[in-house]
């Protein structure tokens, strides 16, 4: 929480909107790894999301205009424990974790009166597999293809300045 407070010290409540994004490495690597090593997936998700929601709650209660972004899907890349390009498990498993993450974070965010924005549904096909044309590599989104999608969703959510 100290890092969040430190970052917000340079912001202006009257003019600035805070955007939080967290979970990319969690859903691609940490959560699936713990689950596949025998952990209870639902308990792991619950614990991780609850810690994130503590930050979201603090930001909202401290009076900030807040937008929380949902995680994007993971790529089709298979299991790869290399710490430089980590993926644990297959795409379908990781994307199911993304969906669960997004549902939990969205419910908590909207319940606190903050805005929630996600493009996850635009980046997967009908089988919940990632549409790779939106990515430039093993995990990074294509700016040219994805930024307009984010802008549209920000506008739909009523985010000022979008």
Would you write up a description of this structure?
The chain is mainly α. The chain has one domain (2-156): SGNH hydrolase (Rossmann fold), CATH 3.40.50. It has helices at 2-8, 24-36, 41-61, 91-111, 143-156; strands at 17-21, 65-69, 115-117.
Question: What key attributes describe this structure?
Answer:
5 helices, Rossmann fold, 8% strand, globular, 3 strands, 3-stranded parallel sheet, 47% helix, 162 residues, mainly alpha
Summarize the structure.
The chain is mainly alpha-helical.
The helix/strand class is: mainly alpha
User: Helical amount among residues, as a percent range?
Assistant: 40-55%
CATH classification, class level: Alpha Beta
CATH superfamily: SGNH hydrolase
Quote the beta fraction: 5-15%
Quick one: overall form? globular
What characterizes the major β-sheet?
3 strands, parallel
How many helices? 5
CATH topology: Rossmann fold
CATH level-two architecture: 3-Layer(aba) Sandwich
Order of strands across the widest beta sheet?
Answer: 1-2-3
């Amino acid at each position: 929480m100290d890092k969040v407070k430190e970052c917000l010290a340079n912001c202006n409540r009257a003019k600035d909107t805070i955007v939080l994004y967290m979970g990319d490495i969690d859903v691609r690597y940490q959560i699936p790894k713990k689950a596949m090593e025998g952990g209870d997936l639902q308990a792991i998700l619950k614990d991780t999301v609850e810690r994130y929601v503590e930050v979201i709650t603090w930001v909202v209660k401290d009076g900030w205009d807040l937008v929380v972004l949902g995680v994007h899907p993971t790529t089709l890349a298979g299991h790869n424990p290399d710490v430089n390009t980590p993926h644990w498990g297959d795409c379908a498993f990781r994307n199911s974790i993304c969906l669960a993450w997004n549902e939990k974070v969205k419910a908590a965010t909207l319940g606190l009166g903050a805005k929630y924005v996600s493009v996850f549904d635009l980046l997967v096909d009908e089988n919940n597999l990632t549409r790779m044309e939106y990515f430039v590599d093993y995990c990074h989104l294509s700016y040219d293809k994805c930024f307009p999608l984010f802008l549209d969703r920000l506008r739909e959510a009523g985010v000022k300045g979008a």
